[in-house]
Amino acid sequence: MERWYINVEKSSASYEKKMKEKEDWQKYLSCNPRPDAFQEAELTTYLTTYNETNRIKNLSIQDVIEDFQFTEGLIHDLNQVLMRAYADADNAKVDWCKHYIKKLRDVSYRKLDEATAYIAKNADLFIEEEASLLAKDPKDPNAKSYKSGDVNTQKNRNQ
User: Fold this and answer.
1) Tens-binned pLDDT, residue by residue, of the chain (159 aa)
2) Are 112 and 64 in contact (CB under 8 A)?
3) Cβ of 10: how many Cβ atoms within 10 Å?
4) Is 56 helix (H, G, I), strand (E, B) or coil?
């Protein structure tokens, strides 16, 4: 009976190793730029870099949104590791995954709060930018012209 158990254990370990190699190869082929969710060093490096960068530039929050989406993809990868850890009853790995997921989310939420504050602080600049985009189109004789800083821009647009 012990011999059977040892054989099953060996084949299970061999299967897991082959699956890990296959996953690594698929990640390599997909040219996925995200850090490896199994590697603490890669996660820590990404987290530090993500935490220290300020990506709001030129009244654009597009970079912040892209960073948030990238981080959510990494959290998805970490959730895959977490599910595997639950299946293996690896409590240390479960705690490790939850820790990194929380840290990544905390930084993401802080970055979104900063972007929201930036937009609120610079709302007048966004309004001026929108007003300039709504300026009279020379090809459209019926288009209304809006002055920058016109407080009734929305009212005039609806007329």
Assistant:
1) 567 666 666 676 777 777 777 777 777 677 778 888 888 999 999 999 988 887 776 666 788 888 899 999 999 999 999 999 999 999 999 999 999 999 999 999 998 888 888 888 887 877 777 777 777 565 665 655 544 444 444 444 444
2) yes
3) 10
4) coil
Signed CA dihedral, 105, 107, 110, 116: sign only: negative
Residue 28 lies in a domain: no
Question: How many domains does one find in the chain?
Answer: 1
Question: CA–CA separation, 47 vs 49, rounded Å?
Answer: 6
CA distance 144 to 147: 10
Query: 90 lies in a domain?
Result: yes
Instruction: DSSP letter for 76, please.
Output: H
Is 116 a member of any domain? yes
> Which domain covers residue 45, as residue numbers?
35-158
Which residues contact residue 149 at a Cβ distance below 8 angstroms, ignoring those fewer than 6 apart?
124, 127, 128, 131
Residue 150 lies in a domain: yes
| pTM value > 0.70 | no
